[in-house]
Structure formats: structure tokens, C-alpha cells
Design a protein that fits this description.
By secondary structure, the chain is an alpha/beta fold. It folds into 5 domains: 66 residues, 3-Layer(aba) Sandwich (DNA Methylphosphotriester Repair Domain), CATH 3.40.10.10; 46 residues; 50 residues; 61 residues, Double Stranded RNA Binding Domain (2-Layer Sandwich), CATH 3.30.160; 80 residues, Winged helix-like DNA-binding domain superfamily/Winged helix DNA-binding domain (Arc Repressor Mutant, subunit A). 45% of the residues lie in helices and 13% in strands. The chain is built from 15 helices and 10 strands. The protein has a 4-stranded mixed β-sheet with strand order 3-1-2-4. The radius of gyration is 24 Å and the shape is flat. The chain starts with a helix and ends with a helix.
């Protein structure tokens, strides 16, 4: 629960991440606003906070015509309707059809959708199909059957959509990496022993205090090859990026997550070295300010330590928060970047 002092601080900051969590009632003018309303701030003594517009209206207030707080609920309803339509559609939906179903113009729906999900409707639909494809592969009799089960119109459409997203061949997902060669090595760094693994596409695992057994558990049917001449060059790049965090943006990755996780990981890679963000900041950056806890989960699901810099995320009170590989490593990474 928020205190009135916390709500007032959000109003003074015009913090959009609090829109939808409460409304600000101004008793002298008889109106209520979003926390982010651009109008001049009222005197604190004239302000009362309400859970939502319905509570404010019950107290005799009317909605602000400048920030239109009640439209936030309408926007969210439109996004939920669009998400449901995309999930239920057998074939890809045109943006114009989604817009007509929600009562918005195509351009406005596109902006709202990106703000709420971090993806365009078309990108969300592609990610959803690829996600369903991965799930289908685990139980389908054949890759072709899984392609149709996932909602693709045919094999050619699947391969065109997903080749850039899925690093491994589609059949590999059905068989724990069968048919995929993963080169790997453990190496000593100033942060401790580190495991690095990569497919032909890029790095698929960077972790501390793990070994071949941990990698085999993730890819039980992959061909695991320790080292190689070609892998040595990539390994050297990863070690350099860990010793000097913030220098590895050029290193190719082969990672995969849900659409939400991948949106979080993109936002993490956009944090400049030497800076930090809170979980709320990341949630706002991907257009989903309420998903603070889910952002924490996506951080924890990061496959490639340092290269996707989840260590740059701290708590909103500026405390360091958690880290899968230990707080000592997190503190050292942050110290190196800040120096």
C-alpha cells in the first residue's frame, strides 16, 4: 500500500509509472487527475488521493479534461482485447483489423501496444507463434506437426519468421539440443571460475561456478565440445568483456526467452555502462510499468551473465538487490563500470 506522502511525491515528479495506481483529487477545483497530469500542481492541503476514478466520482469530483484519467482504463481494455484477438486468431491479424476491433486508429493502437508490451502487434504475434512452436516441439510427433500446431500457415512461413530469432534448428528444441554442437570452456577470471558456451550463432551461456554437468542439464542431447580453435577467439572476447564490463556489446548471442523476457533483456542492454536502473525503471522502459515483479523474474532468467547486464538493475531504494551469481560479483561489476 502506498502512503499519501509517496503518492504526493509521485505527483510532484509527474511519474507516469504511477498512472492507473491512483488518481489525485483536487477538492478546490472538484477535479481528479492522473499522477502525471501536466497541469500546475495544486496545494498539498487541497489534495486527496483516491484508488480510481470511480472513488473520486463518488466523492463528487469530475475527470480532468487535460490528462483524461478515465481513458487509461479504456486504453488498457483495448490492449487486453488486442492481445486476446492475437492469441485466438488462426491467421495473422492486420493492424487495421485490430484497430477496428478496439475502436482506435491503427497508428494510435500501435503506439499504445508498444507502450504496454514493448513490442508492436506484429512483433508480438511473431513472438507468440515462436513461443508456441517451442512448446509444441516438446510434445509433437514431428516438426511439421508442431509448426501447424503453433499457428503457422506452413513450414515456409515458420522458417521465414523464426530463423533470426531461434538460434538452434527447430528440431533441436524438441530433443534437448539434439543435432546442435555447443562449444564450451571453463576459465579462471578475476571474478572466479566462469563457464562460457556457444552455438554456431553465438554465446548461449555465461555463468559463474558452473561446469559441464550444469551445461549438460540444460542441453542433455546436444553435442558438447570442450574448446576449439574457433571457439578460443570468442572465449577471449567474453573474458575481456567480463574483466572490463560494458565492452562486449559486439559479441553475438544465441539466447531465447518469452516475448516479455526478451523485451526486458533488450532494455537491459540499453543501460549505459556505469549507470543503474531500478526494476520499476525497466518495467516503464518496456511500456509495462506494473510488471515490476515480472521484470525481476526476467532478470533471473538471463542466460548470459554480464553480456546482458542484469547486474545494472538495483532496487528502487538504491540498495543493491539480488544477483544469481552472488552480491560480491555484482558489486565488483558495478564498481568496475563506475570507475
Amino acid at each position: 500500500m502506498m502512503t499519501d506522502d509517496q503518492a504526493w511525491a509521485a505527483v510532484l515528479a509527474r511519474d507516469r509509472t504511477f498512472d492507473g495506481r491512483f488518481v489525485t483529487g483536487v477538492l478546490t477545483t472538484g477535479i481528479y487527475c492522473r499522477p502525471s497530469c501536466p497541469a500546475r500542481h495544486p496545494h498539498r492541503a487541497n489534495v486527496r488521493f483516491f484508488a480510481d476514478g470511480a472513488d473520486a466520482r463518488a466523492a463528487g469530483l469530475r475527470a480532468c479534461q487535460r490528462c483524461r484519467p478515465d481513458e487509461l482504463a479504456r486504453d488498457e481494455a483495448a490492449i487486453l482485447a488486442a492481445l486476446a484477438a492475437i492469441r485466438e486468431a488462426e491467421d495473422p491479424l492486420a493492424l487495421a483489423d485490430l484497430a477496428a476491433a478496439t475502436g482506435y486508429s491503427p497508428a494510435h493502437l500501435q503506439r499504445l501496444f508498444v507502450r504496454h508490451t514493448g513490442l508492436s502487434p506484429a512483433a508480438y504475434a511473431r513472438a507468440l507463434r515462436a513461443e508456441r512452436m517451442a512448446d509444441s516441439l516438446s510434445s509433437a510427433q514431428s516438426v511439421t506437426g508442431a509448426i501447424y500446431d503453433a499457428g503457422f500457415s506452413g513450414p515456409s512461413r515458420f522458417y521465414a519468421d523464426s530463423a533470426a530469432r531461434l538460434g538452434m534448428a527447430p528440431s533441436a528444441w524438441a530433443n534437448g539440443g539434439r543435432g546442435v554442437t555447443i562449444h564450451w570452456a571453463t576459465v579462471q577470471t578475476s571474478l572466479g571460475p566462469m563457464l562460457v558456451a556457444a552455438t554456431a550463432k553465438g554465446v548461449c551461456r555465461v555463468s559463474f561456478a558452473e561446469d559441464r554437468a550444469d551445461l549438460a542439464e540444460r542441453f542433455p542431447n546436444a553435442t558438447l565440445v570442450e574448446g576449439s580453435t574457433e571457439f578460443a577467439h570468442l572465449l577471449g572476447q567474453v573474458v575481456s568483456a567480463v574483466e572490463a564490463p560494458g565492452t562486449g556489446a559486439h559479441i553475438p548471442l544465441d539466447v531465447r526467452g518469452t516475448a516479455f523476457q526478451e523485451a526486458v533483456w533488450r532494455a537491459l542492454r540499453e543501460i549505459p555502462p556505469g549507470e543503474t536502473r531500478s526494476y520499476g525503471d525497466i518495467a516503464a522502459a518496456i511500456g509495462n510499468p506494473r510488471a515490476v515483479r515480472a521484470v525481476g523474474g526476467a532478470n533471473g532468467a538471463n542466460h548470459v551473465a554480464v553480456l546482458i547486464p542484469c547486474h545494472r538493475v538495483i532496487r528502487s531504494d538504491d540498495s543493491i538487490g539480488g544477483y544469481a551469481w552472488g552480491l560480491d560479483i555484482k558489486r565488483e561489476l558495478l564498481a568496475r563500470e563506475q570507475s
